[in-house]
Predict the structure of Putative amidohydrolase YtcJ.
Amino acid sequence: MPNRVDKPDPFTAEQLTVNEEVRDPRDASRAGFITLLSVLGLFLLGSVAFQRVLSDRELTESDDVPRFAALGATANLQPLWAAHEPQMDELTIPFLGAERAGWQYPFGSLHRTGATLAAGSDWPVSSPDPVLGVHVAVNRALPGSPGPVFLPKERLDLRTAVTAYTAGSAYVNRLDDTGAVRPGALADLVVLDRDPFAGPPEEIHEARVDLTLVEGEAVHEASGT
């Protein structure tokens, strides 16, 4: 992959093997790398206090929730996981037990305590569809799910969920010229076939992308638009 420091390429990725001289992620951060730590368990989260981005936020004790804002750490959310489905109900909750199961994906608590939120998909583990991710972040349920809502107090409002997927994700990737509509920003825009703020939350997932612009250039147009 060519060096594109002046203009990062969003469509390529590179895996780096950390050598013996870089044992502390703070070294990578000081060298200008974006450090993202996957923190699925409780022990790991309690032992860190420097990461800029903490990803895969599955379990977070209540005492740790306000630490995100206090430390200036960004919570990188994967909202699709925060719903009742076979893996959650048959494999996760029975293993964690009732108390710890109630600590999962505390998006609402993180937002209420002032944490900066970003959101993504963890693709290819789960769908990369951001509209579906926003739907679950707001509803804490998969579309059409007949079961109970998963930890309803941890819902996000629609504006916060959309901001996490747009401005929040741009922030953690140091893409300062995109992620929001403002003077001087790149015209990286998506046009939906409806206003998700105008309809009921249960219908968010039905929105379809009519047009996608990257730096003002149309890169996707739905048929018939």
Notes: Residues 66 and 112 are 9 Å apart (CA to CA).
